[in-house]
Amino acid sequence: MPHKGFLGALFDMSFSEFVTTKLIKLLYIILLILIAIALVVAEIGGLVRMFSHGGFLQGLLMIVIAPFGALLYVIVARMWMEIVIVLFRIAENTTDLVQQGGSRQ
User: What is the pTM of this model?
Assistant: First the structure.
C-alpha cells in the first residue's frame, strides 16, 4: 500500500494512515517551547518575589525548584509521546502482519 502524504492521510476517511506519527515531532517541539517559556516566567517570578518585601526565601526557592519542575515536565512529556508512538507502531506492525498472513494463504 503506497503511503499518502500528510494531507492525504489527514483526509483519509478509512483511517488507514495515521497522522499522529507524522505530527508527534511537532507536538513535542511545541511542548518543549511551552515548558521553556513557563520556566523563564517562573524564574522571573522568583526574581521579582526575591526583591519584593519579605519574599526573599520564597523567591530563592522558586528559582531553585523551577528547573527541576521543568525537567520533570520534559521527562513526562517525552514518556507520553513515546507511549503514543509505541501504540501506533504496534498498530502499524499488526496491520502489516495481517496483510502478510493473508497473502500467504
Answer: 0.76
